[in-house]
Design a protein that fits this description.
heterodimer; A: 5-stranded parallel β-sheet; 14 strands; B: mainly alpha; about 0% strand
């Protein structure tokens, strides 16, 4: 519960010291950050009776002098401008301003200038500038995520805002953890280097006083890596609960939108999947689909038992017992319907898109070598009528990433086939992916075929056989984590910023993936943390990817780079 | 969890700016009030009032700035705040009463030599009071959400929700206490019956032993009869108590049922902050749309129609009139 607890504690502290009825004012980004860790009933318990957004709060002019306003917003210039307007004509009795990140001195001056009536009681910086979706997984939800693939010259302001947001998020995670890290980055990625260097400048030069925690330095590490170093993970179909929901339906800030689906009960059009509030989900989010089915069956059985006992109420004591358990009963009821709806919807999609078949080939493409067999399998799947366009595209991409250098003729054949099969396919997207994340661009040993040790290990695994064909892929991140723990990460590939050295094994490691994380990686991190006490890994990224989002970003980046090269 | 307090810095800037602003503000104030006689004291008053904000609305001399400012910063809270405060006060009272009740329960359940009638009485009264308080709070709570304007009604709804959650928890706790007491009472009663039975058997045995053959067909002795009667009365008393408790449990069940509409289920989408915000935004938009639609229908509706018909009729009449003039 680490990251979630941190943000919760911040909010608790914010609301705790202010007595009386309160209104919480958030901006569009902090709404998400607060929502994933705090619930409406928690807020009510803290006497927060109204939640508004900064834009909303300015539009209505109703005076509410009996309420105290608690602002929790990002210190963006846009927000500061809005806040100025609010302060110039105050509607609430008191204003308590909390900013989610470091305020610049001019911003404080501007605010002080507009506060003519002296309604502001306090101005604080509470560093909760990230969206803590899971205990060890955070995201920044950056909108223009595709810009990381473009060279800087194409869209300098977009790149600047992207990097600023990333640096802000990383800085606030370390402030919340009370650590100043040693910073490393992936050498081949320009954007990772830029973010790492800007973070270092912030932590060691601009705000070195703030980051001075008098702890044993060098006990924590920040590693900035690029999504393009492992383009395979976001392209694979997923078979563990949380990752699968995100891949097939889509999770946004722990919320799943089921409105487009037909056989979903009416009160479950939007559901929450939070590992904090939902015990069943916490226990099963990392399980694979088969085990999940068994567990759901067990849960339904339990529930059936419960509802059966509640049905035969004969005596008064039965009745009072039932009424005592009634709220619990209702909660369980909602939970059971939610998970059953999700799982049944997902198995329908799996059936419809023949994902079992596809996923097997995908996993083989990612994990085992054998170019001829792979080509065979991909061709037959491309010929299969019931395979959807997006799955075809992904298969070809996976094949191309793996066998980029071997037999270009066959690769060309696949491209042509893809173009003829699926109408919507934008030509050149696979080539663009290869240009972005081809073998020459990658640092890590994605397929484990660069040095002899890895090849030997892979062969050993092949001989041993795999437990589950659908979940045999292990993201590259796992190797990176092993490398960090065993101090095997090469300085040439992952150089340090500045002249700081990692003396001993780090205790807290934040891995930030520029371009977005996946739930499969989050699962790897969570399992690793559970198995290895004494070291904590935190995973963060600009967004949480599924294959659709990754392909969208790719397409957008391709479009922009094409149009800019034309000009 | 590092934080940084920027308030001192902010205050410093604000004070500095006030000093800059003050000389700039004073001339303008004097200029505005110089026309009125005795401008000097008024300014002093206004500035004094400004520093002491809560009394600001009293000053009507400076309508341009001070009074509007006063209205924004002070202003009485709306009436429903009193209601909510009353409810929470009631609940607080109920809570203390419940603590007393728990003590009384414990005392009543303890075996004692007296017949414990006082205890019973006390329990009865307390139970009644608590139930009454809860019921009253619930009634008030229903009243809290009446027709009103947009934003205030949101606040109101949330206050109501939070109070409802509290009230639900309180009544749950109360009911749990009641039902455990009931259970213990029952157990005691059963135990007592058992003891009585045993005593009867014992007693009858002893009579058998005592009165060899003369009293054989006598049945119960005087003493036994009186004992039986006494225990019967005792049982009846307990029965009545149990009934009473059951009744209060049922009453509470009703309250629970009413409250459950208001209380948010935790862990569901309704409990999400962003969902609620979106909902508010959506409903505002919806309201705006409805308003537009209403405007349109009004335009189309009866009044306009009637007017146009009348205008047309007038026109026809005029034509007729003209025709009549021309023809005849």
């Amino acid at each position: 519960m680490v990251l979630i607890t941190l943000v919760r504690d911040y909010i608790d502290r914010m609301l705790h010291d202010i007595p009386g009825m309160k209104v919480l004012v958030l901006d569009p980004e902090t709404v998400g950050m607060v929502s994933v860790v705090y619930s409406q009933s928690d807020l009510l318990r803290k006497e927060v009776f109204l939640v508004e957004t900064v834009d909303n709060a300015s539009s209505s002019r109703e005076s509410m002098a009996h309420l105290k306003a608690v602002y929790f917003i990002r210190p963006s210039s846009d927000n500061v401008q809005k806040l100025r307007r609010h302060l110039a004509a105050p509607r609430f009795a008191e204003y308590h301003l909390f900013f989610s990140n470091i305020l610049k001195i001019p911003q404080i001056q501007v605010l002080a200038d507009s506060d003519e009536q002296e309604v502001v009681q306090q101005v604080q910086e509470f560093y909760a500038d990230f969206c803590a979706i899971d205990p060890y997984h955070f995201t920044l939800n950056i909108h223009n995520n595709h810009v990381y693939m473009l060279p800087t010259v194409v869209d300098p302001p977009g790149m600047q805002s992207f990097c600023d947001r990333a640096v802000d998020g990383i800085a606030s995670v370390f402030l919340a953890l009370k650590r100043r890290p040693v910073i490393r980055y992936q050498r081949t990625s320009d954007v990772a280097k830029r973010i790492a260097q800007e973070t270092a400048r912030l932590m060691y030069e601009q705000e070195s006083g703030l980051f001075d925690f008098r702890r044993t330095e060098n006990s924590s590490l920040l590693l900035v890596i690029d999504r393009r170093d492992d383009p395979v993970t976001p392209l694979l179909n997923q078979w563990t609960y949380q990752a699968m929901v995100h891949e097939l339906i889509g999770i946004e800030n722990n919320k799943v939108d089921l409105r487009g689906y037909l056989n979903v009960p009416k009160d479950q059009k939007e559901v929450v999947l939070s590992s904090v509030q939902d015990d069943f989900f916490r226990a099963n989010m990392l399980e694979n689909f088969g085990d999940l089915g068994m567990n759901i069956k067990r849960m339904v059985d339990d529930f059936q038992h419960l509802s059966k006992t509640s049905q035969n109420i004969q005596s008064i004591s039965d009745m009072s017992k039932f009424l005592n358990n009634y709220p619990e009963y209702r909660k369980t009821h909602g939970n059971v319907t939610k998970h059953v709806a999700l799982v049944s919807e997902m198995s329908r999609i799996v059936e419809e898109r023949k994902l079992m078949l596809i996923s097997q080939t995908e996993q083989e493409l990612a994990c085992t070598s054998g170019q001829a067999a792979a080509f065979e399998a991909v061709t037959s799947l491309l010929n299969n009528e019931s395979v959807s366009d997006i799955d075809r595209l992904r298969l070809v991409m996976l094949y191309a990433l793996r066998y980029e250098k071997e037999s270009p003729v066959q690769l060309m054949q696949l491209f042509n086939k893809l173009a003829s099969c699926s109408a919507k396919y934008k030509s050149g997207l696979v080539q663009f992916l290869l240009k972005q994340a081809g073998v020459d661009k990658r640092t890590g040993d994605l397929y484990g075929n660069r040095d002899l040790l890895n090849i030997a290990r892979n062969m050993a695994r092949g001989l041993k056989g795999v437990e589950n064909v659908y979940t045999q892929h292990q993201p590259l991140l796992f190797q990176t984590m092993e490398g960090i723990v065993k101090a095997r990460l090469r300085d040439a590939d992952y150089p340090l910023v500045g002249n700081h050295f990692q003396q001993n094994r780090p205790q807290d490691v934040v891995i930030f993936i520029v371009g977005g994380t996946t739930y499969e990686e989050a699962r790897t991190v969570a399992l690793y943390n559970a198995a290895n006490p004494g070291i904590r890994f935190f995973l963060g990224g600009s967004v949480v990817l599924n294959s659709k989002r990754f392909l969208d970003d790719l397409g957008e980046a391709q479009r922009i780079s094409k149009s800019s090269s034309l000009v | 969890m590092a934080t940084r307090n920027r308030t001192p810095l902010y205050r410093k800037y604000r004070d500095a700016l006030r000093h800059v602003r003050a000389p700039a503000g004073a001339p303008s104030a004097s200029a505005s009030s110089s026309s009125s006689p005795g401008g000097g004291p008024v300014i002093e008053m206004a500035s004094l009032l400004r520093s002491d904000r809560p009394y600001a609305p009293l000053s009507t001399d400076d309508p341009s700035t001070t009074s509007s400012r006063g209205a924004a910063t002070v202003g009485l809270p709306p009436a429903w705040v009193d209601v909510s405060e009353e409810i929470s006060a009631n609940m607080q009272r109920a809570r203390t009463k419940m603590a007393e009740l728990a003590k009384a329960h414990a005392k009543a359940l303890m075996p004692s030599f007296g017949d414990g009638r006082d205890d019973q009485r006390a329990i009865e009264i307390l139970t009644h009071e608590v139930t009454d308080l809860l019921k009253r709070s619930e009634k008030r709570l229903q009243k809290l959400s009446m027709k009103d304007s947009s934003e205030d009604s949101n606040v109101r709804k949330n206050v109501q929700r939070s109070l409802a959650t509290d009230l639900q928890n309180l009544s749950m706790e109360f009911r749990k206490k009641q039902s455990t007491y009931l259970k213990q009472l029952r157990q005691q009663k059963e135990g007592q019956d058992g003891v009585d039975l045993e005593m009867n058997i014992n007693g009858s045995k002893s009579t058998f032993e005592l009165g060899d053959d003369e009293f054989e067909d006598m049945g119960f002795t005087e003493v036994q009869m009186s004992k039986l009667k006494k225990s019967e009365a005792f049982t009846r008393e307990r029965e009545r108590e149990i009934e009473q408790v059951v009744e209060s449990v049922n009453e509470l069940a009703q309250i629970m049922k009413d409250l459950s509409v208001l209380v948010i289920d935790q862990g569901t989408i309704i409990d999400r902050i962003d969902y609620n915000i979106q909902n508010v935004a959506a409903s505002v938009e919806e309201g705006y749309k409805q308003l537009q639609k209403a405007e349109r229908t009004q335009k189309k509706g009866g009044m306009v129609m009637c007017a146009t018909v009348l205008v047309i009729l007038i026109f026809i009449m005029i034509v007729l009139l003209i025709l009549k003039k021309i023809l005849f």
